[in-house]
Write a structure and sequence with these properties.
Keywords: Membrane, Transmembrane, Transmembrane helix. This is Sortilin N-terminal domain-containing protein. InterPro entries: VPS10-sortilin, WD40/YVTN_repeat-like_dom_sf. The protein is mainly beta and 360 residues long. The protein has a domain of 130 residues: Methylamine Dehydrogenase, Chain H. It has a four-stranded antiparallel β-sheet. A four-stranded antiparallel β-sheet has the order 11-12-13-14, with no helix packed on it. Strands 15-16-17-18 form a four-stranded antiparallel β-sheet. It starts with 7 loop residues before the first helix and ends in a 5-residue tail after the last strand.
Length: 360
């Protein structure tokens, strides 16, 4: 590759540590929670605020962009919300206090229906640990189910059959750890056994009720009946870190040990399109099926030809966490950073980052 394209050798130096992190992805929030409890029980967050998201110790776990310029950022110390595309922020949410929040997801059938996970980041907190849901785009929250009843969930994803459907993964349940709720997260059942010991993520296919993919350290699998039965996808012979798609019948992109792979038959098969990158996360852009972004801990890359070639975006200082597209403005993306928590906006037209993080 020439010009702005990063060399394969340089990329491999960047990706090796990310691969190690990805293999342990399901342990990250557990470790984060453990470190938070042990360190913060004796040192409550009384340090000086550095910005609207609190102290320099705060960091982002998840971010979600909703229609009408609504942004939600789930952090180690509470949930923050913007109603003007990041120009101003409110939070932490009073109903959730400053509990650790993570794994934000909204229903593709009703974007106002949002789900998140919450647990304690401080020993003094008393809020219930478990799955919370909002019916007003994250303004208010209600406890849907407690972790004591469902088991500790490490990932939640809104389903594609109804706004009340949500998928989750509970590692302690083993092969039956993939669970689904049809009543807004109040009750969960296991529809069928997984083909893998553990999974790293879930991708419901847009506007294809009951059809979804799961990916893991051992490959990927597909279900056409909401997880009751699974078919292992050929073409994967090692770990798959992340999957994404921009819309119904659009290409599905996967990143793993092999590189970047693409499916053009709704996830039934994948082919390798780029072997010199191993991104920890991929982000597809609605309305632009051939455009996809790849993220490492320090850099973001963009492909405009379906993953065949990649170009680096301007670099930002900090730990890059969550990259999400604006659901209504395809040229705009949002990025969260950690230590301290911050949010930036990227506009494809001017190819520049703009900070959306007010000072303290």
């Amino acid at each position: 590759m020439q010009g702005d394209y990063a060399s394969a050798a340089a990329r491999r130096l960047l990706y090796f540590p990310v691969q190690v992190v990805c293999v342990l992805a399901l342990l990250v929030l557990s470790a984060c929670s453990g470190l938070g409890n042990s360190a913060q029980q004796t040192a409550t967050p009384a340090a000086q605020k550095v910005n609207v998201f609190g102290t320099a110790a705060n960091h982002a776990h998840a971010m979600l962009a909703l229609p009408n310029n609504i942004l939600l950022v789930a952090t180690h110390y509470g949930l923050y919300r913007s109603t003007d595309a990041g120009k101003s922020w409110s939070g932490p949410n009073q109903g959730l206090s400053d509990m650790m929040t993570s794994s934000l997801t909204s229903s593709p059938l009703d974007h106002q229906r949002v789900y998140l996970l919450a647990e304690h980041s401080l020993s003094s907190q008393t809020g219930a640990i478990g799955l919370y849901t909002s019916s007003d785009g994250g303004t208010s929250w209600q406890l849907a189910s407690k972790a004591d009843d469902t088991g500790k969930m490490y990932t939640i994803v809104a389903g594609n059959r109804s706004a009340d459907e949500v998928y989750a993964y509970v590692p302690t349940k083993g092969a039956n750890g993939f669970v689904v709720s049809q009543d807004g997260g109040k009750h969960f059942t296991s529809p069928g056994a997984l083909p893998f010991g553990r999974i790293l993520g879930i991708l419901p296919l847009p506007k294809q009720p009951g059809q979804l993919l799961v990916y893991s350290n051992d490959g990927a699998a597909r279900s056409s009946d909401g997880g009751a039965h699974w078919t292992t996808i050929k073409g994967f012979d090692s770990a798959v870190y992340n999957m994404t798609t921009s819309g119904p019948q659009d290409p599905i992109y996967a990143s793993g040990d092999q590189g970047i792979l693409v499916s053009k038959d709704d996830g039934k098969s994948f082919s390798l399109v780029y072997a010199d990158a191993r991104y920890s996360a991929l982000t597809a852009t609605p309305g632009q099926p051939d455009m996809v972004y790849g993220k490492t801990g320090r850099m973001i890359y963009k492909s405009t030809d379906g993953g065949h070639t990649w170009k680096s975006l301007p670099q930002l200082k900090g730990n890059l966490e969550n990259l999400v597209p604006d659901p209504q403005l395809s040229s705009r993306l949002f990025l969260s950073l950690s230590y301290p928590c911050a949010v930036y906006q990227f506009d494809q037209q001017n190819a520049a980052w703009t900070s959306l993080t007010p000072n303290a």
